[in-house]
Amino acid sequence: MTTRYVGLVVLLLSLMCPRHVAGGAETGGALVFRNARVFDGARVLPRATVLVRDGRIAAVGPEVQAPEGARVIDARGKTLLPGLIDSHTHVFGPEVLRAALVFGVTTELDMFMSDAVLDSIRKDLAGEKGADIADLRSAGTLVTAPGGHGTEYGLPIPTLSSPEQAQAFVDARIAEGSDYIKIVYDDGKALGLSFPTLSRETLKAVIAAAHARKKLAVVHIGSLQGAREAVEAGADGLAHAFIDRIPEADFGRLVASHHAFVVPTLTVLESVSGRGGGAALAADPAIAPFLSPGGQADLNRAFPKLAGAAANYAAAEEAVRQLRAAGVPMLAGTDAPNPGTTHGASLHRELELLVKAGLTPAEALAAATSVPAQQFGLEDRGMIAPGKRADLLLVNGDPTADITATRKIAGVWKLGVTVDRDSYRAEMEKQRAEASRSAGVPPGAKPGLVSDFEDGKPSARFGAGWQVSTDSLQGGQSKASFKVVENGAQKSKGALLIEGEVDGGLPYAWAGAIFFPGEVPMAPADLSSKKQVSFWAKADGRSYNVMLFAPSQNFAPLAQTFVPGTEWKQFTFKLSQFNGYDGHDLAGLFIGAGLPAGKFALQIDDVSFQ
Ligand SMILES: [Zn+2]
Predict the structure, then answer these.
(1) Confidence band of 523 (pLDDT split at 50, 70, 90)
(2) If you measure from the C-alpha of residue 438 to the centroid of ligand 1, how many angstroms do you get, rounded to a whole number?
(3) Is 83 left (phi over 0), alpha (psi -120 to 50) or beta?
(4) Ligand 1 centre and the CA of 127: distance in Å?
(5) Which of 247, 310, 315, 393 could bond 104 through an S-S bridge, CB–CB 3.0 to 4.6 Å?
(6) Ligand 1 centre and the CA of 446: distance in Å?
């Protein structure tokens, strides 16, 4: 499960608020946690000292002495844990890894993202930004059948249709940088959908192809039957539990006998089941101050209710109970940012749900630390032990007794460097205030005309004008430019020519022009007196997008498509066509091209709100 357009949202938010640069980087000096209760990834040391040097754990024990000049943190009443690992996320840009880190999630295991974005994040991780964002391992592009789950998000991905292609397919993913292979084996029926999926033979062949290259094969399933077949086909791990049917009593033993691990992702399953756990998390006073407007909206969002969809959350809990009894390694994963989940915060919910499903708090903590480190071969982390990375989470209280104590964060360190949570919190507070501020009617907006391009300039009658907007800031290669040209619509003088090339490398590729109705780019403007937006257009017969952005919509693009021909034609869209939007806080109007990739040239004229 993935959500589309998140990268664009992140981009737009980062336009609004310039990025904060990390503060508080300690250099080289030793760091000591004294009098801490330590959960080392497996067991509890009731009172210990932990010495960190050069980003690594140097010593752990009751007798460890603080060296001269060390920074000493008195951790009395607190618990020190290895940085948490979320074993199922989707990463559409670096910003979500910043959110993860602030919540103590120092490593994310992505289960499907664009390999172009992965490339650019790897560069961030290697550079200055690295201290500010969670570390990442990724499946890159997933393996699915033509038209299968994973193809519905607009990212043009290669697909697999026969066992014979499996090795070449897997090798291509490895060449792109996939750390492990994520495979979709799900026909969607349990969710009331219908997708083609890989045959059992092809599934077996992909798993074998991954193993031939010493890569883990992690299989997304959507049903009990799918889970059984995936482990029988040799899956190393299952990317979800299921909510379609209570498993027969032998399910846990079956998984155990095949030595597979399971990432139950109870967080997303409770969301699919309509249990509202995300909203509860968003309201938690330990969580709320650190949520971005986007994260807040993600948590409050619900999956659409589909006829015929299974929603038997008890099935997932029973699966977890059986898996635990059978000794199957379980890994904590959220599937963020699906509706009802968000990066970082949701892992704390997952820990709580794992405990409710029968794990002890210490087992749940191991599921987010040492167990994923073991299963994914991340030998340098997941434990507080000499030589391991000093990715650390310090919390108030004792999460080995009350799992919700993981939310009472006293500090987060990545490679021994303090994460500046206070600045992040202040920044998010500002962003949330900005997003909820009631927008004013911009001066000059009353007649509704935006631009007729008659003065030969790309100017606008109100707002902050037009700008080029492309996916380039998200690592995309799409290009656009615009200029005023002669021979506008209805025999007028000027029109705006927007031209460029859409690159297919991103799931949310876009290139075009964006009009900002507010006084500064992305400031919301109250256009609720207007009922529709219209413009004239002519082009080349390919399809184009018109998209609206608003803070009340979490900046998720509200999109409509149109297909202009070679003659000028007027296009009119009711605002309500955009997901029922009412125009009260419009921050941007985009007109331009999306996928498919390729060159485009679009002329627009007489843009107005009526
Ligand atoms: Zn997923």
Answers:
(1) confident
(2) 35
(3) beta
(4) 28
(5) 393
(6) 45
